[in-house]
């Protein structure tokens, strides 16, 4: 199963990357980027069937009675129609009544796409759509890094390109706060690179981002590469990166290594048990090869101290984070 479909099925509903055509389609949820991609997919499929597709947009919040029936009525030459209705979360009572009547007997050669941003407004219509088995595209925000990683993998799979696991993580760390930014970053890497996309490619385009820099410091420190960890850290600090996200990245990496250190089982099984994604389990296991139990205890203690220091307890937070990186990097086995 593809990463895109896995992510979608976790959320429920139909796959937003491959929306099945139907007389009525509900696009539901607050993530505008996913909603726009779902609508684009419907448009593309309908235009592939007939380039003369007529597209009409309606606003459910400012709807007046009779509009839907008028727009859906057959045209002179009977061209197929796509009607996109937005702002269902603020729908007028007139729209609710007209929509309830329309979905019971949709017009032929018309596709009605209903966009609802979430919430309970129009519950009567939502329940009626569910009872009729109308395809529902879930548009929920991707909050977990594992979901964003699946999204990135799905974008590359669709483009028939490959990206390695470390590059996926680096890209999510660099631009994962916005799904539209993440999609744009995927498009840029697909367009501007060839072959397998690596973490070096991600670093070239997005290495200046705070999160990506923090994870490069953490990766080097946990691998026992003190010179690289320190030089990367000092460059980050010199360019204005705050010590707090640097310590947070180190702490996250150490926690992941501690979780898998004595664990047994497949990556998929441990991912379920530990609340991590399989690629995070694999990366943590690789890092764990550099560590002993006592060394992990040392790393956890220094990070607890450093976290408090960079958040106000120390006069010199830069010195505190440098000391933590040195202790961690030297505790790890090369």
Automatic annotation (TrEMBL):
Q: What is this protein called?
A: DNA-directed DNA polymerase
Its keywords, alphabetically, are: DNA replication, DNA-directed DNA polymerase, Nucleotidyltransferase, Transferase
- Organism ancestry: Bacteria, Bacillati, Actinomycetota, Actinomycetes, Micrococcales
DNA polymerase III delta subunit-like C-terminal domain segment(s)? 212-326
EC number(s) in its UniProt entry?
2.7.7.7
Domain of life from the UniProt record = Bacteria
One annotated GO molecular function is: DNA-directed DNA polymerase activity
User: What cellular-component terms does GO give this entry?
Assistant: DNA polymerase III complex
Concerning its family, UniProt says: Belongs to the DNA polymerase HolA subunit family.
Top enzyme class, one word, equals: transferase
